[in-house]
TrEMBL record:
One GO cellular component term noted in the UniProt record for this chain: cytoplasm
GO molecular function terms attached to this record: glutaminase activity; NAD+ synthase (glutamine-hydrolyzing) activity
UniProt xrefs under Pfam families: CN_hydrolase
GO biological process terms held by the UniProt record: NAD+ biosynthetic process
Organism: Rhizoclosmatium globosum
Keywords tagged on the record: Hydrolase, Ligase
CN hydrolase domain location: 4-137
PROSITE patterns: CN_HYDROLASE
Gene3D superfamilies xrefs: Carbon-nitrogen hydrolase
Protein name: NAD(+) synthase [glutamine-hydrolyzing]
Length: 137
């Protein structure tokens, strides 16, 4: 039987602390690799932090999220491990709670947005919507 090690991360991310959040993501990737993990699963919205609320209406929030993702791609931190990075994405003028998959310096097909709206602890559904999978190419 083949086995795989998966690293599931819970990070102490701060809303809009892009630099600090990036560093904590990098540390978690290093720890996952040191533990022999082949797959590193980060929390949703780990790039921006969870409590951004109305900042999801601001384009800079998305711009800085993409800058963090670009830094991860360029850094080489994701070499030798699949990284699932949670971040908001603007698509067709709609804000999505999305995940990006990175292996090495390549980004792969994004996951559908999580359908957690309606959960009592989930407040981002006021700002972020679920991706319509029927409209994907």
């Amino acid at each position: 039987m083949n086995t795989i090690t998966v690293a599931v991360c819970t990070l102490n991310q701060w809303a809009l602390d892009f630099t600090g959040n990036l560093e904590r993501i990098k540390v978690s990737i290093r720890k996952a690799k040191a533990a022999g993990a082949a797959y590193r699963l980060g929390p949703e919205l780990e790039v921006t932090g969870y409590g951004c609320n109305d900042h999801f209406y601001e384009n800079d929030t998305f711009l800085h999220s993409w800058e963090v993702l670009a830094e991860l791609l360029e850094s080489g931190e994701c070499n030798g491990i699949i990284c699932d990075i949670g971040m908001p994405v603007m698509h067709d003028e709609q804000a999505l709670n999305d995940a990006r998959y990175i292996v090495g310096n390549q980004e792969y097909i994004p996951a559908d947005a999580k359908d957690l709206c309606g959960h009592i602890l989930y407040t981002s559904c006021r700002k972020l919507i679920r991706r319509n999978t029927q409209s994907r190419n």
